[in-house]
Design a protein that fits this description.
Length: 308
């Protein structure tokens, strides 16, 4: 199944967040980095969502990972938004055990090509090989690259596989709040856990996810000048909060206009801490613990190749 170009969810009022528009000139800096910010040795975190296996990082992936450590990062969850991307993500993770983990899923953009006979088999195989989550999957009614019934079918099947395997789900949603809310609520009722990634949705959707036992993850979008929903950043309880880069997309202030990379999650974390009135180091420790717990990172030991 050939994957379409990944597009971040984004889509809040007045926000332009598609991959090709992530650095639109109208999205100028909200603020510059403040003097006296905590050092990287004080603030630690895990990037819960990065497309690190993409070709955008082929030339300097090792340098990118080195910069994660230098900035205080403790690891990266490398997203497999298609089965082909998951295979590449697996290679990156296996080259960096204990620092990079990988996921496997079928993005809503690719649901038009979803094969309910063969794709679930391949997805289960990826999870057995060590993928820590199902996804990126979900619903995208903004681009509508795939018919909506097929998006819902692919998403429902992946939720079922998550329940079967005990893995969490990484969910993309854009302009599909009613259906996302219904499916996440139903999933939570049967014990499926997950994260609403790169969240820019309504308070009602966030609250539905939280009520279902899910997490909410924020990206560099919250540093943009046009971000206005400070209350949303305070709504999510400490124990359900994640941070992500969604790199190579959505570079945060003060890195706007550049290819995003996981090291810059630090800027998102500092922005969250400022808005929530939290100590950055303490909040970093919290989101790190949340990421480890949701994805069971300390329990996932990838099998060796001969056992696949």
């Amino acid at each position: 199944m050939a994957a379409r170009e990944h597009r971040p969810p984004g889509g809040g009022p007045g926000l332009t967040t598609a991959a090709g528009d992530a650095n639109h000139a109208g999205m100028g800096p909200r603020r510059e980095a403040r003097a006296g910010a905590p050092s990287s040795s004080e603030v630690r975190w895990i990037d819960s969502h990065a497309h690190l296996a993409g070709e955008e990082f082929d030339a300097d992936r090792e340098d990118v990972l080195a910069r994660v450590s230098a900035a205080g990062g403790l690891g990266v969850v490398c997203i497999g938004e298609s089965l082909a991307a998951a295979a590449r993500a697996r290679l990156v993770a296996e080259a960096h055990p204990g620092f990079v983990w990988w996921t496997a899923g079928i993005h809503p953009h690719d649901a038009a090509d979803y094969d309910p006979a063969s794709d679930p088999v391949r997805l289960r195989s990826a999870l057995a090989a060590g993928a820590v989550a199902v996804g990126e999957c979900g619903l995208d009614y903004h681009y509508d690259h795939s018919p909506r019934p097929q998006q819902r079918r692919a998403f429902a099947d992946q939720l079922a596989i998550a329940r079967e395997t005990g893995r969490p789900v990484v969910v993309h949603t854009r302009e599909a709040e009613a259906d996302t809310m219904a499916m996440v609520t139903e999933a939570g009722a049967v014990g499926i856990r997950g994260v609403l990634h790169c969240f820019t949705g309504s308070h009602a959707l966030a609250e539905a996810g939280l009520a279902a036992g899910w997490h909410v993850s924020f990206s560099g979008i919250i540093t943009f000048r046009k971000w206005a929903d400070e209350a949303l950043l305070r709504l999510v309880p400490d124990d359900r909060l994640l941070v992500e880069s969604d790199s190579p997309y959505l570079a945060p202030v003060p890195m706007r206009g550049k290819r995003n990379e996981p090291a810059w999650c630090r800027h998102t974390l500092l922005r969250l801490a400022e808005t929530r009135g939290a100590d950055p180091a303490a909040l970093g420790a919290t989101v790190t613990a949340n990421t480890r717990r949701l994805f069971a990172l300390d329990q996932r030991v990838p099998p060796t190749r001969p056992e696949d």
